[in-house]
Amino acid sequence: MNTFTQFFVIAGISAAAAGGTWLVKKPSEKVALTCDASQISDEEICLADVPDTALWIDARSRAEWKKNGLKGSILWNMDPSEDANRFEAEAAAAILNADFVIVYCGSKACGTSKEIAKRIRLLNLGPKVKSLYGGWEAIKDSSAVLQNR
Amino acid sequence: MKILSPIIFLISSLNLFAELKFDTPVIKAEADHKTKTITREYRFKNISTKTVTITQADAGCSCLAAEVANGKLEYAAGEEGVLRATFEIGNLQGLVEKTIHIWLKGDAEESPSTSVQLQVYIPIIINLAPKTVNWVSGEDVAPKLIEVKIEHDKPVHVTKTESSSEMFSTKILTVEKGKHYQIEVTPKGADQVGLSIIRIETDLDVESQRIQQGFAVIRKAQQ
After folding, report:
1. How many C-beta atoms surround the C-beta of residue B196 within 10 A?
2. Cα separation of B65 and B84, whole Å?
3. Global pTM exceeds 0.90
4. Interface of B with A in 201-220 (CB under 8 A)
5. Do A46 and A21 share a domain, yes or no?
6. Which residues form the domain of A20?
């Protein structure tokens, strides 16, 4: 088999492997992150539907929040080394003055944003509270949101 | 070698049927008030026909560490292993549900192959209801109550309460000593709007829940 033929054999096998992987393992989450409001839970919101005036709560680690948290965002996570009462107290005044609160964590998979959103709802301070579908994965792909940082 | 190269490439590329099957993908656990960490094990089996490599197991929360027992990451077809999850309770209370995602070699960053869940119930020893008492500016400033109910194996007393703002005064009312108290919160006037943290101190022997907090709010009247 000459080099030319060998190249096409490798390319063919690669294409077959890639296609098979795509069929079996489904497209990557990058595609799934296209948020359809009718397909997500009532507790979640698509990035496109977030009001401009929303208060952002960052449920990632303190280090991540410091590194690239959204402008005006408030840190509130479930890190056992953090003071949960302090998070709650520091966020309460801002939440009271907000009409919409959006909680985001690291990714669609992380789940912490839903936990924090639940805790905020229990405070019954008034605003609607949702967790962001896709979390930081959705934000980092959105130039519109990042421009406001 | 010329024939072998594409075959080796094919074998290394095909990750089509890699799959770990967990015996119990959802584990429920209940902590008692002295528990600081909870560790649970998830047994799994490689039910695919090829060797798989675990590249990452992550719960997206520093409260939950996930590791494969003995650090073994490669599993041949039919081989079994154990994923160990250690949950640090910290000052969390109530039901906490955490999902651990498991990535195998070849998985996209956003698409872990599989996941398991740990549901931990941490007893709420001191329950406040409501957590927030509200008034509207310009309206009646009658006192409102925050109920403090205790579920513990020994009496717990509310020892002190205070408002972070001078807009409110607080008073401890005993309904049943060691079991049930009320915090009476009274605005000193309703001509201003604002929020105050109502700090409630107890003699509970569980440090993480010893101090509780509620909120008092005077809102602007709707126009």
Report:
1. 23
2. 8
3. no
4. 211-213, 215, 217, 219
5. no
6. 1-30
